[in-house]
C-alpha cells in the first residue's frame, strides 16, 4: 500500500514538473497541449480561490446575460413565423444563438457548461477535491438558474409589450426543446457538454479576441443547429414556457432541467477534462 502511494506521489510530481516546464510559445506559434492544460488548471484554481459570494454573483450575471440569446431566439421566431416553415426558423436560430455566449465568455462571467471541464482539471491534477468541485458546481448552477429564471420573467413580460414576439413564440420554443424522451435529452446534453468543454479548451488555445469570438460562434452555432440541449439556455427556454403556457408542467421542467444538467456535466468532465488530462499524463510516462 505504501509503495503504491509513493509511486502515485512520484507520478504526480513528474506531471507537475512537466506542466511547470510548459512555457508560453511565441506569439505566432500555436500553444502546445501542455500549455493549454497548464492555463486551464491555473484558471480553474483561481475560480476555486474566489469567495462564494463572488462566484454566486458572477454565475447569476451569466444566467441573466445568456438570456439575451433567448431574447433573439424569440424575436427571430416572432418575426419569421408564418413567413417560412417552422423547421427552417429553428435552423436559422443558430445564427443568433451564440450572442449570449459571446457576452458571457468574453465578459468573464461564470457559466456552468463552459466551466465544467475547467473546474474538473484541478481535481484530476490533485490540487482540489471532488467535494470542493461539487460544492463549486452547486454554487454556479444555482446562480445560473436563478439568473435565467429572472430573465425569463422579464422577457415573458416585455416581449409581448414591445410586440417583438408573442406568448405563442415562447410556447413553441419551450415545447420544441422539452418534447423529447428523457434518454434522448440525456444523450443530447452529453454531446452539448462535450462541445462546451471543447469550447473552453479552444478559447484557451486562442491568443486574440477575434479568434475567440469566431470559436464561440462556431461551437455554439453547431450546438444550436443540431438542436443539442444546453442546460442554462434551456432553463430560460423551458421556464419561460412554464410560466406562460399550460403545455409545460413543473414535472416536465424538473425532468428536463435535472437531466440536461447531468448530461452537460458528464460531457464536459469526461469527454474533455478527463480525456485531455489523461492524454497528457500518458505522454510523459
UniProtKB/TrEMBL annotation:
Compartments where located: Membrane
Membrane protein topology class: Multi-pass membrane protein
Cellular component, GO, one term: plasma membrane
Residue ranges, annotated region (Disordered): 1-33
Record GO terms (molecular function): formate transmembrane transporter activity
Keywords: Membrane, Transmembrane, Transmembrane helix
Protein's recorded name: Formate transporter
Species of provenance: Polaribacter filamentus
